[in-house]
Amino acid sequence: MPQSLSAVYIHLVFSTKHRQPFLRDQNLRTDLHSFLGGTSKRLDCPPIIVGGVEDHVHICAKFGRTITQADWVKELKRVSNLWLKTEGGIRDFEWQAGYADFSVSQSNLEEVKRYIENQEVHHRKMNFQDEVRGLLRKHDLEWDERYIWE
Hints:
alpha+beta
């Protein structure tokens, strides 16, 4: 096949360091989500949706063919960290070191999109750690509690 084609969708989740609620301000959070979406698009990973709450972010994107998952996340975190410190005025801002990402089938994109859209409601009942544990279980991933949180 002389042409390379790809339809891979990723649901990415990462938190502020120690789940500090740095993103409480709704306007800042909206601007951050827009910034992350634009950055992901520039990395050839067009966003489907970006959302989250005061201590973490969810991104669902069509994954590009020319970048690794680790490089995508590293760059998203790097540039948004700088943006939050300069534009957001949060001098001591940091993201957690790790992340979780999950494959999403085309048939489940709308479900994941709704899930991310409803983060505010969802987190009235469940904290970040329980949410991530649920996602890890759903995707049949093993983890060690000693190393997953910081």
